[in-house]
Amino acid sequence: MEQATPTLEELNQLVQMSGTINMEIFYWWCIALMMVIHAGFLSYEIGASRLKNVLTAGVKNILAFAFIVPTFFFFGWFIYNGFAGGFVLDMEAASAALPWSQSMGPNISDNATGIFWGAFALFAATTASIMSGALIERTRMSAFIILAVILGSVVWILGAAWSWHPTGWLTTQWGFHDVGAAGCVHMIAGFFTLGVVINVGARIGRFNADGSANSITGHSMPMSVIGLMLVIVGFFGFLGGCIIFNVGGQWTNIYGQPATLSGFAFNTLMGFAGGLIGAYLTTREPFWMMSGGLIGIISVAPGLDVYYPPLAYVIGMGVAASAPLVHKFLVKRQIDDAVGAFAVHGFAGFAGLTLSGIFLSGYPNMGEGVPPVNFLGQFGGAVVLGLLGFIPGYLISLAMKKMGVLRVPAHAEERGLDLTEVPAQAYPEWALTGASTTYVSTDSASATLVVAEVKTV
Amino acid sequence: MSSPISSWEGASAIFTFADKPAVTVTIVVIAVALTVFAVWATIRHEKHSYNSPMTKK
C-alpha cells in the first residue's frame, strides 16, 4: 500500500506542534514539582509548631495556597502584564490577562497562557508560604489570609513585573539581572514577612522581661527537616519555571538571553551543597543545615545561567554561614521570626543580588539601549525590591494591629490554637493520656529551663 | 447554551460562555464575592472560637 509523502510544510507543522506540546509538558511537570514546595512548607511549619498548634499551622498553610490561586487569577496575572513600567498601568499589554479574556481559559489556539499562569500562580503561593512559617502560633487566620493575598497576588508580582519581565523597568533602565527570582520572590517575601513579624509581636514566652530570649521548640524537628528537603526538591520545578522553553530554539532566561538547563543544574547543585556546608560550619544542626541548602540556592539564583559553578559553591557557603547570624541579630532585637524566614529568604536574596553585582558586571542585556549588568543596577534593584516588600508588609500589618485583628487573644494563644479553632486532633493518643506539653527553654544549652504543662482530660 | 462553539472547525476559545462576555464577567464577580465571603466566614469563626467558654477555661 502506497503511503503519501508529507510535504515540507506538513513536516514543519508536525515539528512545531510537537515542540509546543513538549513545552506544555515541561511546564506542567514544573508546576507539579512546585506543589512539592508546598508539601515541604506544610511539613516544615507543622514540625516547627508546638503540639497545641500543629493543625492550625497546617490549615493556615493550606489556606494560603487555596486563596492565592483564585486571587492570582482575578488580578495577579493582570498586574504582571500591566505594570512592567512602574506604577502606571499599560492596559494594552494587560488586556489579555483580564480574568474574562479569551486567553484566560481553555483555548485551543493558545498553548502558553494557562501553563505560564499556572507556573506563576505557584510562584505566588511560594511567597505566601515563605511568610506563613514566620507567623505561626499567634497570628489570626483571617489576618494571615489577607496578608497572604496581598503578598502573593499583588506585591511580589508587581516586583516581578519590574524585575523579572523582559520589559520590566529595572532591567530596561538599570540592567537588572535575576534569573532565579531571588529578588521578586525571596527578597520581597522575606522583607514583607519582616514587616509583619515586627507588628504581630513575639509568641508568649519567647522573651523575658529583661530582654533575654527563650527558644520555643517545635514538636518535631525531623518533620521540619524532611519538609525542608521537600522544599529543595520542589525548587527544581521552581527553577525550571524560571527558564523559557522556546519551540525550535535554544532555551532563554526570562529576559530573553540564551541559557541552558545544564547551566542551571551546575549552579543549583553547587550552591545547594555550599549552603549546606556553610550552615553546618556555623550551627552544626540539621534545621539550619537544610535551611542553608535553600539559602545556597537563593544566593546564587541571580546568576544561575552564567556563574562558574565553584563560584556558586563559595557564594552559597558564605551566605548560608552568615544567615544564622542575621537570625540571631533579629532575636536580640526581640523579633520573633519563628522559622528564620527573613534570614533564609530576605537576607539570602539581598546578599545574593549584591554579590551578583560584583560577579555578573559586564554581561550584556538584550534590547537596544538596555545597560549591561552592573553593580549599581543589582544593588539598587535589591534595595527597591526590599522596600517594595517591607513597606506594604509593615504598614498593612500595623493597620491591622491598630484595629485589633492581627493577633489571637492571649488566652487562645496560651491554651493552644488547635483546641480553640480546629475541630480535630493532631495526635489523639496525647489527648487520651492527658498530656499536653509546652517546652520553653533558654537559648543557652547549659542552662535549660523546661516548662511543662500537663493537663488532664 | 453554555457552549461557545457549534463545530470544532476553526475553534479557538472553547471554555463555557466564552462567547458571552456578560456571563463570564458575572461569574467572575460571583467568584470574587465567594472568596470575600470565605474570609468573612473565617473572621466569624475566630470571633466565635475566641469567645467560647471552653476556650476561656
From TrEMBL, chain A:
The keyword tRNA-binding does not apply. It comes from Pseudomonas mangrovi. GO terms for biological process: ammonium homeostasis. It comes from the Bacteria. The chain crosses the membrane at residues 26-47, 59-80, 114-136, 143-164, 179-202, 223-247, 259-280, 287-304, 310-330, 342-363, 375-397. This is Ammonium transporter. It is found in: Membrane. Keywords: Ammonia transport, Membrane, Transmembrane, Transmembrane helix, Transport. Belongs to the ammonia transporter channel (TC 1.A.11.2) family.
